Amino acid sequence: MHQIIIEKITIPYLKTERTLRIYLPPNYEEDLLFPVIYMHDAQNLYDVETSSYGAIWDVHTHMNNYYKMHGQGHIVVGIDNFEGRHNRLDEYSPWVNTTIKEDELLQGIHEDVGGLGDDYVDFLVKVLKPYIDNKYKTKKDRTSTSIIGSSMGGLISLYAGMKYPEIFSRVGAFSTAAWFAEKDLLMALKDYQNELVTKWYLDIGTNESSNDKRDDFDDLYLTGTQKIYDILREKVADENLMLVIDKGGIHNEKDWSKRFPAAIEFLLK
Prior knowledge:
This protein is an alpha/beta fold. It has helices spanning 59-70, 85-91, 100-103, 117-135, 152-163, 182-191, 217-233, 253-268, and strands spanning 3-11, 16-24, 36-39, 75-79, 96-97, 113-114, 145-150, 170-174, 199-207, 241-250.
């Protein structure tokens, strides 16, 4: 039987505690070491009662099925997002968005957002990973370390993969909110150079927008992910890059859950 461990960790740059939600596979008690997947927005991974929007990724079910199919258990370390909609935007982008308060892509934002992404990614690598490696039975090498997220979590996962290729060898970006910092993100991808082999999973739905006031929002999601794919395609071997376009797919945990099994099949094999 799998386990979900709930514990706290201190965020140094905010001087506050954050909840971790850690999945341990059914065979965790065996004398083995396990690969680790780091995920964001942990409130939405396992439990409907903690989910922000009433749906979950159902990660534990998918990982149990993966274990049954392949005989390989994984640890999944989910870290809760920075509470509050604007705070989450701050933490999942290293770049500041100075136009969001005017372009009406998201409602109710009246100030610049973003800019804590470097602090957050540094925390993942320099604080969280050593903590997990010390406390749990992990495989510590890069080939056993993945990072996966959706929307803004997709953006910061891509950035983490670029900034720390020596740490993360598998990157999953679901429904990436590239529009939030598209110019900066694409420039970083163009500058990205890495001799280590990294696998990149990208996906996007065709009905991503939840803002009816902007008819072009779906297109912003689609074209942003396509641009990311086009740049990576010039740098990454075909077998290490996957793009899924989900016709009719919308921007929620239910659809990310639907696509998760194929994503981990590609990333983890």
